Amino acid sequence: MSLLARIPLLRNIVPPREHTHRYHDEQDRRAVIRARLLAIATVAAGIAYLIWLFFSLNPHHPWMGGAFLFAEVERVESSSFYGAALPFLLLHAPAAGRSVRASALSTAALQTVLTEPKRYFDANWVWFGLAAADGLIKTATPAVDAISNVY
Questions:
Q1: Angle at CA 93, nearest 5°, toward 92 and 99?
Q2: pLDDT confidence of residue 74
Q3: Helix residue spans in the chain (DSSP H)
Q4: Residue 88: what pLDDT?
Q5: Which of 6, 71, 93, 151 has the most crowded Cβ, counting Cβ within 10 A?
Q6: Taking the model in full, what pTM does it have?
Q7: How far apart (Å, rounded) are the C-alpha atoms in residues 108 and 85?
Q8: Does 67 share its domain with 92?
Q9: Where residue 46 falls among pLDDT bands split at 50, 70, 90?
Q10: 93: domain range?
Q11: pLDDT digits (tens, 9 = 90+) for 89-126
């Protein structure tokens, strides 16, 4: 066990050096540590941003800052994500798919995506999801067995 892996706070960041059964585990060690550190830095930057947002408007009115903080956190839902996931949801969880289509992919919810020219890719994912859900796109990725003898 390395010295850094013995520190309780760093134990989950630095993977152990002892042999595991994963192929190229030792070669991936630096990349794994770098990825974990970047993930921690991203979360820390996000938390710092939310704290800054809370106090940036007017520190004498923290409730109003909290309202803006809530609005910022609430904005993270992506219509393109819902559009891309809709065919899967309708196939494997029909109730959830109908709910997503009625709420997140309704005409009222999509007005900002449809009216802003810079949201082309979001509109594209929404269109593909709705088209696939409505049966306009008939072909799908072939099964692995169907293409296994191609090469």
A1: 140
A2: 60
A3: 3-6, 29-56, 62-74, 79-92, 94-103, 111-115, 120-133, 144-147
A4: 86
A5: 93
A6: 0.45
A7: 19
A8: no
A9: confident
A10: 79-133
A11: 888 888 888 998 998 898 888 887 788 888 888 888 89
